[in-house]
Amino acid sequence: MIKAYVAKNAGEKFEEFTYKPEQLGDKDVEINIESCGICHSDLSMWKNHWGITTYPFVGGHEISGVISQIGAKVTKFKIGDKVGLGWHKAYCNQCNLCLSGDHNLCKDQVGTIIDNYGGFAEKICAEETSVIKLPDNMDIKTAGPLLCGGITVFNPLIQFNIKPTNHIAVIGIGGLGHLALQFAKAWGCEVTAFTSEEKFNEAKEMGAHNVINSRDENEFSKYTGKFDLIISTVNVALNWELIISTLSAKGRLHFVGVVPEPIKIQAFPLIAGQISLSGSPVGAPATLNLMMEFAARHQIIPIIEKFKFSEINEAFAHLESGKARYRIVLSK
After folding, report:
1. Residue 283 neighbours by CB distance under 10 Å
2. Are 183 and 301 in contact (CB under 8 A)?
3. Which of 27, 36, 54, 168 has the least CB density, counted as fewest CB within 10 Å?
4. Does the CA dihedral 64-314-58-260 come out positive or negative?
């Protein structure tokens, strides 16, 4: 039996729970879980904000641990390998999207915590394609947030062929944004943070060359036509037309945070500047592997607050309070 922490209904406290492990398939691996990040998506699933949660709910999709069993046809891993598992635990591996390397867009992807028990547990089983080997010099206790938060902001750098000479802005310096600053700085870009004044020093320490007070719209005019890419990590409505005015010709406003209401903009600025609006989910396994190598090489490490698995309810309360700096990780 596998020990886990479960919420039996939406928003209810997590409690101890046991369940039978799923049968290991030929291409599956079993992971002994050492630590697991808590992402805002876990909170949304716990509360059923998206209407897709099944209960009892075992969240957790920023998983790091060690391979304890492998299926008969597994070739990618051996027992004892240090690995991570993110938002997806399997793909069809047969559709055109998977075959072209876009597994994260597969229509038949299997979510780690969607109709499945996730990483708030002792063990988890996943198909080997979705499992990522961690670099030898990466701390297994801090790797988890890279598997969702990290890849979410790294993926646009790959997808849009961002160059080291580009000017990148990041809106929101939180769980996603603090990693976006680190990645963009290490990528070689000039980096600007849109954030509150009290986070200016922190943003600069994380890699921002410039900071904009996101609450003072008068400041935006200093950056008209500057940015090649703006990554929005926030889940609040902003003055998007003013933000678009800071994009250069052929610039892109890219959403990785879920804005809770329709984004209202005028078409003319998009047409005149050949501006793009886009969004993306996490990344495919190949991009995850690239991110892990890049993060290890440049010592990009999530800033975390640690809780024990037994303190899961306190950890969720801390996340819900908005005071987390900047990712929460559960460990043994």
Report:
1. 28
2. no
3. 54
4. negative
Indicate the angle between helix axes 149-159 and 285-298, nearest 10 degrees. Answer: 100
Q: Which amino acid is at 303?
A: I
Residue written as token pair 């961690």: 134
Q: Report the DSSP pairing between strands 210-213 and 62-70.
A: unpaired
Who contacts 156 (Cβ-Cβ below 8 Å, separation ≥6)?
Answer: 162, 229, 231, 254, 256, 280
- Rounded to two decimals, the pTM is 0.96
Separation CA 61–CA 58 (nearest Å): 10
* Residue 25, both tokens: 């398939």
For every residue of the chain, which 3-state class applies, written as one string? Answer: CEEEEEECCCCCCCEEEEECCCCCCCCEEEEEEEEEEECHHHHHHHCCCCCCCCCCECCCCEEEEEEEEECCCCCCCCCCCEEEECCEEECCCCCHHHHCCCHHHCCCCEECCCCCCCCCECEEEEEHHHEEECCCCCCCCCCHHHHCHHHHHHHHHHHCCCCCCCEEEEECCCCCHHHHHHHHHHHCCEEEEEECHHHHHHHHHHCCCEEEECCCHHHHHHHCCCEEEEEECCCCCCCHHHHHCCEEEEEEEEECCCCCCCCCCCHHHHHHHCCEEEECCCCCHHHHHHHHHHHHHHCCCCCEEEEEHHHHHHHHHHHHCCCCCCEEEEEC
Residue length of the chain: 332
188-232 pLDDT, tens digit each? 999 999 999 999 999 999 999 999 999 898 999 999 999 999 999
